[in-house]
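User: YbaB/EbfC family nucleoid-associated protein. Structure?
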Amino acid sequence: MGIEPGQVDIGNSALAAVLIEVDEQRDRLRVLAEEMRGTTVEATSKDRLITVVINARGLLTGLSIDPLAMRRYRAGQLADEIALLVRRADDELTERRNRLAGELVQYQGPGYSDLD
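Assistant: Predicted structure:
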């Protein structure tokens, strides 16, 4: 009985270790993707009158404006403050995503020196 098309002979222990590592890495990526998918980030103005919430894709999903903000800010100022808060939240989201991805990349896995 030979190896069927699409199958790999994992009799070689180094190859088996690589395939196991690939499976583990795929599982870690799946967990990371799931964690990021449900992520939301909130940013609030210094005067605490405006709050934005963005999702993992950077889309605005929540906006809270205290009625006092309508009297304190002119329309253009209010729009600018909302845009600033969305950028701030998106920067935090990017930082969080990079940190999680960095943790994944830092994992060195088994040594593959015998594959050189």
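The radius of gyration is 24 Å. The chain has a mean pLDDT of 84.
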